[in-house]
Amino acid sequence: MSSEKKHFTIRASASRLEKGLLAIPQKFRDWFPSAKSEIQVVFDDEEKAKGLTFHPNGPEVKENRIFGVGRWFSKRGVREGDLISITIEDRERHLYRIVLDRFIQEREKQKSRQKLNAARTDSEAEQELSTLSRLTRKRPRGLAQEELLRIAHESVRRPRPRVSPGAAERHEGAPAAIRVLLRELHDGKCQLCFFTFEKRNGEPYFEIHHLDPEIGHHPSNLLVLCPNCHAQFEHAKVTDFKGAGNWLVGATINGKRVAVRQPLAHDSIRRALLAVRGENGLFHESEKRAV
Q: CA neighbours within 13 Å on the CB side: how many for 141?
């Protein structure tokens, strides 16, 4: 056998799920014991092996079967049509690994999301967004929208430490993952006037504004703005906020009504997922105040 472990994939069927067993195709028969035997099985990414029974086809059983996987089916929520991979870990010891492909893929996505959220720099966040895009087979912009909504749904608005941004970059202390996701969603363009410019490194310039200075980096509390619009939000008379749930969609700046481009608010399906409801909104009729 080569150093690369042999493996094959089967598809879960309703009848086998009901019986709590796996049927092994005849073409892989030689990978298993020649007679009814106990084999050692490690499930998914676990380390401890469990003894199961392998029963080859014969007069009593018309197919090769691995019995005793019903509990694993229940634990992982295995469904009809799911792909299950079986790998020979050690043929001499009759040691095999059985993996639910969907479970491993979700674990990889989860790890990638954790790395994205923990990124310390924009480049690290960009790399993980690219990895997550590959794993989910989704385009970066659509993925950025989904991730921002997920973050908004799972996080709470909390006080944040105040920072003094440097002259070169005004990120307002927002985490790298949030900056990269917002940049991807809005193309680095101002949510009010659509303006941006290309920096020397080829990336779009933008600034992140916290609508409520005392609240943290919840996506609904953040706007992608050009320097001019950012300065207006910080120094001009800003009133008459209009919100769609948690999301700001309009305001009045020095008497002029402006619209805020807010795709996170206007996607009805994702708004339903976010479960935006009145009392949880950032903007209320009674809170029409300057930021």
A: 5
State how far the Cα of 289 lies from the Cα of 175, in Å rounded to an integer. 27
What average pLDDT score do residues 237-265 get? 92
**pLDDT tier for residue 162 given thresholds of 50, 70 and 90:** low
pLDDT in tens, 272-291: 444 433 334 444 433 333 33
Integer Rg of the chain from CA:
27
pLDDT digits (tens, 9 = 90+) for 113-139: 999 999 999 999 999 999 999 999 999
Cβ(114)–Cβ(32) below 8 Å: no
Place of tokens 């092994």: 24
Answer yes or no: are the C-beta atoms of 160 and 217 closer than 8 Å. yes
pLDDT digits (tens, 9 = 90+) for 141-153: 999 999 999 888 8
How far apart CA 74 and CA 181 sit, in angstroms, is: 36
Question: What residues contact residue 272 under an 8 Å CB cut-off, 6+ apart?
Answer: none
**DSSP readout, 13-51?**
-HHHHHHTEEEEPGGGGGGS-SSSEEEEEEETT----EE
Q: Give the three-class secondary structure for 97.
A: strand
Which pair of tokens denotes residue 143?
């993925």
Question: How many Cβ atoms are within 10 Å of 69's Cβ, its own excluded?
Answer: 23
Query: Which spans in the chain are helix H?
Result: 14-19, 70-76, 101-118, 122-136, 140-154, 176-186, 227-235, 263-266, 268-274
Taking the CA atoms of 168, 172, 177 and 183 in sequence, report the sign of the dihedral they define.
negative
